[in-house]
Amino acid sequence: MDLPRMVAVLHAHNVEFLVIGGIAARVYGSARITQDVDLVYARSDANIGRLVKALAPFNPYPRGAPPNLPFEWSARTVKAGLNFTLATTLGAVDVLGEVTGGGAYENLAGHCVTERMFGHPTLVISLPWLIRLKRAAGRVRDFEAIAELELLQDLQKHTP
Q1: What is the DSSP string of 51-62?
Q2: What does the angle CA 145 – CA 126 – CA 134 come to, to the nearest 5 degrees?
């Protein structure tokens, strides 16, 4: 995954997004490796247009879908859908309009911290909210990650 370029491209196109999932966990010190980036995007028409334009050069295609499936990466497609798990030439990206336990971008943006990711100020879900989202997702791998994240949270509380 070319995360530095992904972040740079999204910022260059002024896409309103925030980072959750494994990349957010890494920001807080998680040792877990992730194979994709999970982004929650604002669903305004203007932002959807910017998101589509930003990712279009990287051939977004539904991850795991059979080859040659008719798929059009367009604002119309994103407006008609909500959450997309995509393969791109930059790597795997989950483009999420809403997430279980947190809702839409507008609901989550106030529960973020701004971290510099590869030189760009980027919204990253706060550690308590990351734990909340993982708990709400309820997958085995999320429950495995929660123990580590709670330990990291405890360490943050006790570090001056």
Answers
A1: HHHHHGGG--EE
A2: 30
Long-range CB contacts (within 8 A, 24+) of 41-45: 41/15, 41/16, 41/17, 41/95, 41/96, 41/97, 41/105, 42/16, 42/17, 42/104, 42/105, 42/106, 43/97, 43/104, 43/105, 44/16, 45/75, 45/79
User: b/e for 53-87, b at 16 or more Cβ within 10 A?
Assistant: ebbeebebbeeeeeeeeeeebebeebeeeeebebb
Which pTM was predicted? 0.91
Kindly write down the DSSP assignment for every residue of 10-73, as one continuous string. HHHTT--EEEEHHHHHHHTT-----SEEEEEE---HHHHHHHHHHHGGG--EETTPPTT-----
Q: What is the pLDDT of residues 77-116, one digit of tens each?
A: 999 999 999 999 999 999 999 999 999 999 999 999 999 9
DSSP state of 84: E
| CA dist., res. 34 & res. 142, Å (int) | 12
